[in-house]
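REQUEST ID: PR-0412
SUBMITTED BY: lab tech R.K.
PRIORITY: routine
TASK: structure prediction, single protein chain
INPUT:
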Amino acid sequence: MAEESYREFMCKLVNPGCDFSIRAKTDDEVIEHARMHQEIAHGVKDISPDLEKKIKANIRPVSSDGHQF
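STATUS: complete
OUTPUT:
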């Protein structure tokens, strides 16, 4: 069975101490979930261009079992 490729973001790379992570098929899905998380968990309603840039810079490819490519 072939492994699937996913994109992953770990919030602790932007907000130290936060254990939230999201894995999805596309960067756009990851960013959308990360935005919702920032609002709910961190009270950030409007994502600044700088924060969005940090989120995008910390998205990495992983396999379906969590191993980084």
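NOTES: Strands lie at 5-10, 21-24, 59-63.
REVIEWED BY: pending
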